[in-house]
């Protein structure tokens, strides 16, 4: 039986699973697919929040859920809201987005909480997608510098029919259950390696394990 193992999923509406009629999103699907006994997972996704908003709140929320005597992990996923344009400018500039994420991962490591960063997904707006793609690349570079696990999903989801179709059929940003299942399948190999403490870091989209269930400010 696994010891007291806790994971906080921290981020925006994609973390919360907005649009999923099963109310699981990708985070719930990952949490339910852990071998070796149950884990305690907390979904701390908040709709419309940017990295600035998340950076301001996440630590107090995680600290209340991750006591010192547990095996504590934190998953960060955010950035799409940063790239949304309002009043002729993005809600958060790229340099600040990277700085906010760096602050979060550094503080997590200082607490002894192992961080993992999941990159932002595409939406049904190609101009915003270009901004998100650049932010994804910046996030990946920062995480490499900080020796933090990073999993980019942008290109894989952009090429995934069910994700883009359900986003288009929905509100332009969020898919249904099939899209979130595809998202979780991309993450599954890396998730399982990370949750078991393995040094292996398989790329998103490789050898994905099958799972049960099949305005762009999000």
Could you characterize the architecture of this molecule?
The protein has eight helices and seven strands; from the N terminus they run E-H-H-E-H-E-E-E-H-E-H-E-H-H-H. With 218 residues, it is an alpha/beta fold. The strands form two sheets. It has a five-stranded parallel β-sheet, sandwiched between helices. A two-stranded antiparallel ribbon has the order 4-5. The longest helix is centred in the middle third of the chain and has 20 residues, at 126-145. The radius of gyration is 16 Å and the shape is globular.
Please render the helix and strand layout as text.
Layout: E1 5-11, H1 13-16, H2 25-31, E2 40-45, H3 51-63, E3 71-77, E4 85-86, E5 89-90, H4 94-110, E6 114-118, H5 126-145, E7 149-151, H6 154-158, H7 161-169, H8 177-195
Parallel strand pairs: 1-2, 1-3, 3-6, 6-7
Antiparallel strand pairs: 4-5
Please tell me what the overall shape is. Answer: globular
Mean pLDDT across all amino acids? 91
| End-to-end gap | 38 Å
| Cα radius of gyration in angstroms | 16 Å
Number of strands: 7
* Spatial strand sequence of the major β-sheet: 2-1-3-6-7
